[in-house]
Amino acid sequence: MTRSSQGIESPSDPARFIEAAAPVLLQQPGIGPDSAAVLLIAAGDNPDRLASEASFAALCGVSPLESSSGKSSRRRLNRGGDRQANAALYRITLSRLRWDPRTQDYLRKRTGDGKTRREVIRCLKRYIAREVHRLIINSIAPRPET
Questions:
Q1: How confident is the model at residue 11 (pLDDT cuts 50, 70, 90)?
Q2: Residue 9 confidence (pLDDT)
Q3: 3-class SS letters over the chain
C-alpha cells in the first residue's frame, strides 16, 4: 500500500496546492504536479506583473533571440530567466513529444520543413509557455462573487 492509499498525505504534496490554485494546469498533457508547481512559483501571486505572454516567456527564458550570422537566419532561446521554469517547460515538451500525437505530428511537419529537432523544441517550449500563461492568468484572475 502506498502512503496516499492509506489516506496519509505528505505535508509538501504539491498536487494539493495546485488543485487549489490552478487545477486546469494538471489537466493539460505532459504537465505534472512538479512542473506545474515550478511554473506557478515562477509566475508568482501577482498577475499584473505578467502583462503579456511575452513577459512570461522572457521570465521563463524561452523568448527568442536572433542569432544569425552571414547567410543563415536563425533564432535561439534567451538564456536568461528562471532556469527551473525553463527546465519544467523542457520536461513538458519532452513528455509531449513522447506521448502526445499532436506534438509528434508537429515535430514531423517541422522537420520536413527543414527545421532541426532542437529548433522544433524551441518552438514547442515557446508555445507551451504561451499556453501556460493563459491558463495561469485565467485561474488567478479575480472571479466575480455570486
A1: low
A2: 54
A3: CCCCCCCCCCCCCHHHHHHHHCHHHHCCCCCCHHHHHHHHHHHCCCHHHCCCHHHHHHHHCCCEEECCECCECCEEECCCCCHHHHHHHHHHHHHHHHHCHHHHHHHHHHHHCCCCHHHHHHHHHHHHHHHHHHHHHHHHCCCCCC
